Amino acid sequence: MASPLSKRPAGRDIGRIAGAAVFDRAALPRVLPFLVYLAFILLADVLGRLGFAPAELRWLYTVKIVAVLAVLLACRRHYTELSGPLPGVAALATAVVAGVVVLVLWISLNASWMQIGSSSGFDPRVDGAIDWSLVAIRIGGAALVVPVMEELFWRSFLLRWIEAADFLRVDPARVKTKAFIVTVLLFGVEHTLWLAGMVAGAVYTLLYMRSRSLWIPIVAHGVTNGLLGAWIISTGHWTYW
Description:
Blueprint: H1 11-49, H2 58-74, H3 89-106, E1 125-126, E2 129-130, H4 132-161, H5 177-189, H6 194-211, H7 215-235
Antiparallel strand pairs: 1-2
Helix pairs in contact: 1-2, 1-4, 2-4, 3-6, 3-7, 4-5, 4-7, 5-6, 6-7
């Protein structure tokens, strides 16, 4: 009789081992930028509890965006879902329209029961005057860096990983209801406006599933964030940042 140590893993065990290896290798480049982003949110919260005023922490956003961008650039060769031909004009137009629709819903779904806690936001005014360098960094980061970081994590990685550990092989169009619901719920509660976040998450996920191109939700997400920034500047609703 062969000893337990000499037994070879069953096929299912081999599959789990292979899946874990794929997770370790493919997930990290998509998870790490998101974790860096969260780390700065946690840092800002800790500094706020230590007595730093929001105005004193405005510089932290610049550092956060630079750090996330640095990780994205360092890992760029791993993002195979962003390679290949770019989407056509019709698909991009759909993404733009979807981004605008999400913006309208985002600034409308703001009843007290639709919020988790409160946010002091990001006020770019210095001595009563808007600091346009802070505005440029905030809108640029929100429209160009954050959508890439978040879509790589929420849509490309988590949505498909819930389906299978070897998530890169999962066709977005074949993602099942469970993965859709879980990612939409989590994306929503990540934001202060949780209902608006869920609506946005649902729209971006459906765009990804329908187009099978991560660029489409990235563009829609970027349009939403960019226009939201313009709306905030024009209205002074700093808490939306």
